[in-house]
Amino acid sequence: MARAKQLTISAQDRPGTLARIAKVLGDSRVNIIAMNCATFGVQGAIQIIVDDIGKAKEVLDSLRLPYTEEDVLYLELENSPGCLGDLAGKLAAQGINVTTGYGTAIKGSNKASVVLRVSDLEAADRIS
Q1: In the structure, what pLDDT confidence band is assigned to residue 12 with cuts at 50, 70 and 90?
Q2: Which DSSP letter does residue 30 get?
Q3: 47 shares its domain with 83
Q4: Is residue 55 domain-shared with residue 111, that is, in the same domain?
């Protein structure tokens, strides 16, 4: 399975936070290819996968935004009913837990993008 580096950025939950981060990354020619946001009280977490991890980290460091980096599964699945269930079933059969996940597909597209943080990335890599 395909892997990617995911950055999880900690930031205050207030209007403009995502806009500021996305603009600075964009101005630095860093393309966000997957994104998820969540809030917890007054704090927020923005999870991103980008096309240039090194440059993205430089930008975040310059903004003094705290972030973590981790390996995740980043997959393209067929955009049809049951595909995510099939994948999740294969992971479960190997005792692999999905701890975080997000994805999207454009209506009418043949492919869907899925990001999964799993309990055992090495074992997940061996699943075909």
Answers
A1: confident
A2: P
A3: no
A4: no
